[in-house]
Amino acid sequence: MNKYEVIIFWSEEDKSYIAEIPVLAGCSSDGSTYLEALKNIELIAQEWIETAKILGREIPTPKGRLRFA
């Protein structure tokens, strides 16, 4: 389980739930249910981090809940 903030929302355009991890640029997934989107983003986040390590890129530190004004 990752420690990054996950945002999940319904996309009418895609007719699916979209899950995103804002601090991992481009890290998103979808699913036909909320739980499927959550499960998928866990896998995508792991792959994102593994790829960043291979490429020698910085991996952001989990910051917990992000606060927006």
Mind explaining what this structure looks like?
The protein contains 1 helix and 3 strands, in the order E-E-E-H. It has about 70 residues and is an alpha+beta fold. It has one domain. Strands 1-2-3 form a 3-stranded antiparallel sheet. The protein starts with 6 loop residues before the first strand and ends in a 14-residue tail after the last helix.
Name a few traits of the molecule.
globular; 69 residues; single chain; 32% helix; alpha+beta
Helix-strand category? alpha+beta
Residues in helices, as a percent range: 25-40%
Strand proportion: 15-25%
Structural Rg: 12 Å
Helix and strand topology:
Elements: E1 7-11, E2 16-20, E3 28-31, H1 34-55
Antiparallel strand pairs: 1-2, 2-3
Question: Care to give the gist of this entry?
Answer:
The chain is of the alpha+beta class and 69 residues long. It has one helix at 34-55, and strands spanning 7-11, 16-20, 28-31. It has one domain.
